[in-house]
Amino acid sequence: MKRDIYKQLVSWKLSSSRKPLVLKGARQVGKTYILKEFGKGEYDNVAYFNFEEDPDLNEIFSGRLSPLMAVVKMQPEHRCETV
Asked: Which of 10, 49, 56, 72 is the most exposed place for a label (fewest CB within 10 A)?
């Protein structure tokens, strides 16, 4: 199972027409784990933001926001875990 989803994530990464990634599923099935492993294995730098543990992060997306401003507001000086 892990290899199947990992392969799909790699295909998503390599796609020239990829869209933002949304991973949905039941609780406690390994979504966070596989995304952290994918990030470590496929990228030089990855930041992990947990909006449940830090509800203040939700303010980043309140109101009108351009994609550029979202990225600026999510820089590492905001509370995140580097994986």
From this structure: 56
Question: What separation in angstroms does the CA of 24 have from each of 40, 56, 70?
Answer: 20, 22, 22
Give per-residue burial for 34-61: e unless 16+ CB within 10 Å, then b: bbebbbeeeeeebeeeeeeeeeebeebe
The whole-number mean pLDDT for each consecutive block of 10 residues of the chain, a chain of 83 residues, reads 86 93 90 93 87 82 79 67 59
Task: Give the 3-state secondary structure of residue 52.
Answer: coil
- Go through the chain and tell me how many residues it has: 83
74 in Cβ contact with 47 (< 8 Å) = yes
